[in-house]
Structure formats: structure tokens, C-alpha cells
Records
---
Amino acid sequence: MAHQPAHAHTVPLHQPWTHWLLLALLVPLIAACGGNSSTTAPTTALAPTSAPAPTAMAVPTEAPAPTAAPEPTAAPAPTAMLEPTAMAPGKTIKIVTTMSILADMVKNVGGERVEAENIIPIGAGPEDYQPTPQDAQKIAGADIVFYNGHGLEEWLDDLFKSAAKPGQPQIAVSDGLEAVDVGSADFKEGNPHFWMSAANGAKYVEKIRDGLIQVDPDGKDTYTKNADVYSKRLLDLNAELKQQADAVPAAERKMVTNHDAFPYFAKEYGFTIVGNILGNPEAELSAGDLAKLATAIKEQKVKAIFSESQFNPKVAKTLADEAGVQIIANLYTDTLGDAGSGVTSYIDMLRYDMKTIVDSLK
Ligand SMILES: [Zn+2]
């Protein structure tokens, strides 16, 4: 498929870290093998300061990458000395997010001070997610939880009740945003897919920044600076997406979507949603409703039906055949893509979706 060129901002960062990552992996390994200080000495001697070594060694678990990786960038540079009062070695704020999109946002705001664990796997949707015992463990170990809210993750209530630490902040990042479709049968608290507008994404960033400052006041300057930089990128993106949408005449910016994930996208970028095959992914349309939708597509000259990577496009295909239009089945809404998809960040996702939509309507 015509994925946009991979330009994920995370890729280049990995390269200078590679040997540090190896170091972080090797040091505990060597230690575990009974090596004495003489074995490890040549390895640790590579570190110019004594500070980073204990940090890397303090993470002998199977997932050292997120914790250990950010440290080495600071280690060899003289700037490491500028942060003597930062966190205790190895101390990072443990964050749990529900969606991969939120995990990406949190990493952008939290940087090296946070360790983000996500609940819903890549490729799965939030509405019909079934939590696992491992999810309860994640919640139990979290310093703070960020979730979307507006009823998107109804399954979260039970996890909070059974597993949350007392006093754990649980932040619904969509709180305070004005919802559409309030009181509809599908989304009782209003449509929760706010993040499909980059302008709303910037609002999420404010909530994330404030939550992080709440649990880690020492990081206030870092979080504020990171949030400012990232918000600006999102607002620049928003302007760029509006410009791209303008390539399609306003009257032709019509979409039929698989699940009802695009109202904020449509509002922000000037599209009209003619209909949805599924309101909520848990619901289903009757044959009669499908026929009506096919008629609407023909009458309103909708050029394409859009579905997403996490859904089986079978019903969308039936409808597309019936209405005689194309189906674009590989958009991303509720989840980022896997490593090879080119859609591994929130910014990538919105860019990819807009390009795919505009290309199919032009
Ligand atoms: Zn959804």
C-alpha cells in the first residue's frame, strides 16, 4: 500500500544509542554470570562519568530499552553535570496509557523522565477491548494513568476499582473538550475520537503536561518545554493538514466511514460525513440500513468508503460494491501501526490519513 515515506522521528535517535543499549543489556548479563569487577571494569570504564553506569545497571529487567536508552545520550556529554538534582539514578515516572496514540504523546512530553507502558496492543481498537490480568498489574504499578475518556474505555472502570494504587492520578485527556453527538446510542458521553484533529491533540498535550507535573514537580521545566515544542509541532501539522484538505473542492470532501471515528477530523478539515457503516464497532447495520447508505453514496456522489487497519473490511467492501465506489481500507484512527507501517507516531498517523483521503478524493 502507498504508505507515506518513513520519516518517523524516533528512527535516527536509535543509532547513537545502539552501543549504549548493548552496554545496558550486557552489563547486567555479565554481572548475572558471576563476573567480578575485573570483568566489568573495561565496560564501565567507557563511561566518562560515574553517574550513568549505576543507572544502566539498575535495569536488569527484560525491558531495559525505554529506561536505559535515554540515559546514555546525557551520559557522555558534559551537560550530564548540569542536572545533578534531576532524578535519583534509575528513577523514572511510571506511566500507563490505554492507547498507543496516547503513549506516543506522553513520550513526547515526558521524554527521559518517563517510562510509558501501553494497554491496548497495536492493531486493536479501544471500544471492544478485553482487559487482561497483565493490564491490572500495569495499572497497579503506575504512578499515573492517562486515558482518552468520554466513555471510550468503559472497561477501565473495573481495572481502576480492582487494581489502582490509592491516590493514583487517572487523567482523562479529553476532559473539558466539547463533544459532538452527545447522547447518541453509540457514544453516550459524546463521540470520543477528539484526537483525529491535531488541534484537539494539542489540548491533550496540556492535560498530559499538567498530569506529569502533578506526579513529578521537579520535572516541571522539562515537561513545560517539551509540551510547548510538541504542541507547536501539532499546531503546525494542523495548518499543514488544512492546506492538504484544500486540494479537494469543499463540495467533494465527502466520506462514508466504517466506524464513527471522524467527526472531529471532518469538522476541523472541512469534510462531510455522509454515513457510517458501524456507529460503534460493537454495533452492526441491518441490510436495510446498508441499502439506504448505498443510495446516499450514489445520490451525494461520495467517491470512496474509508475503513481502518483494525477492522475486517468485509461489510465495507459489500457496500462499496453495491454503491459502485472504491474502498480505502487502511486508514489509522484508534491505533498506530506496527514497526513497518510508517505510521508509528500520532503525527505520522494524521499525515498518512489525510494524504490517503485526499489522494482518493482528488
Ligand atoms: Zn474508535
---
Amino acid sequence: MLRKDLYRYYNPVFHRFEWNEPSYIVIALYRVSRAIRMMPKWCFPVKLLLNLIIVPIYAFFSILLGISIPRGAKIGPGFRIYHFGTIVINPKAVIGKNFSIHHGCTIGVKNSYYDQVIIGDNVTMGAGAKVLGNLKIGNNVTIGANAVVLSDVPDNSIAVGIPAKILPKKNEYDIKRGPFN
Ligand SMILES: CC(C)(COP(=O)(O)OP(=O)(O)OC[C@H]1O[C@@H](n2cnc3c(N)ncnc32)[C@H](O)[C@@H]1OP(=O)(O)O)[C@@H](O)C(=O)NCCC(=O)NCCS
């Protein structure tokens, strides 16, 4: 998974991997923390030992970079965080592959702790976007900068504004690639 995340750090404009982006540290620590969490119960002593090491390191980098991704959140391979700062993902969130998120984004509850956001594959969240409530975002969706999404979003669409209105993607190129995929 981590290798697939790394591939997403390729910048096609400058023809280089942007591994120097600090957000990658959080993704790596998230992957490790989640792998520890998924270890079977009988590994309890090993799990405890690994947690004692990883939890403070993960907490340190999460606070330093302002990126809160609890390891309960399920995020598929090809996860890319552009920049850093005030990124919050709810622990119940389930997110597909090739997910891209920018600074200032929140995926969380609207007004109930039971809310769960489910996001499909190839979804991009523009800077400052919020996805709130008990809702589903389809595949190949782009959420515009500063949008506040409060309802389901179908496949191959764009969500913009507050509250977000849904627009279809214009052409095959947009559907397949999205602006940041
Ligand atoms: C959502 C987005 C991808 C749409 O781009 P696009 O496919 O080229 O679409 P258009 O610019 O043709 O806009 C389509 C409509 O949505 C509106 N719109 C686009 N982005 C919007 C936004 N962020 N908020 C509100 N409305 C928006 C446009 O005004 C237009 O409305 P209209 O049809 O009534 O004229 C793009 O505007 C965006 O927000 N990208 C995220 C950029 C970002 O976060 N960059 C961070 C860099 S660090």
C-alpha cells in the first residue's frame, strides 16, 4: 500500500517524485499504525510494544503537520495528501483507492456521532473542502475548493459550493483523470 501511495507523489510537470513533501511521513505512519491495529488478538504483547513506540511518534507528527487521520479510518492504496495543515478525517470513514486531499479538508460528522462517510475510488478533495454527515461519495468525483458536501454525490461528478451542488464531469478525460489524479 505504501508503495502505491509513493507513486502518487510523482509530479508529471517536473518529472520527479515529491517525496520531500512532509505529508508522506503521516501517510507512512498511518499505514504502519493501521497494520499494527489489524494484527490478530493473540499478538497482544507485540502489539502493545509496537504501539508504545508508534503512538507517540504518530501523535507528534500529526500535531506538527496538522493532519489527523485516526488509524480506525480505512483508506485504500494510492493515498495522496497535497501540502499539510488542518486535515481531519473521521475514524469511521471508509475511503477507496487513489484518494487525494488538500490542506484544510475535513471528512466528518454533521450532527451525530453515528455519521459515516463512505468515499469511492479516484476522489479528489480541493483545498478547504468539507464532507459532513452520513453520506456516500461515488467514484471519480472531484470536490471543489471550499465546498461543503452535505448529501450523496454520484459517480463521475463535481461537487462545488456551499451547500455543494452536483455537476456532471465534462468529458472522458476529466472522468478518468480528474484535475489531480
Ligand atoms: C471543482 C473544480 C475542479 C472545477 O473545475 P472545472 O471542471 O474546470 O469546472 P469549471 O471551472 O468549469 O466550473 C464549473 C462550475 O462550477 C463552479 N465552480 C468551480 N469551482 C468552484 C468552487 N470551488 N466553488 C464554487 N463554485 C465553483 C464554476 O463557477 C462553474 O459554475 P457555472 O457553471 O455556474 O459557471 C475546480 O474549480 C476546483 O475547485 N479545484 C480545486 C483546486 C484546489 O483545491 N487547488 C488547491 C491547490 S494547492
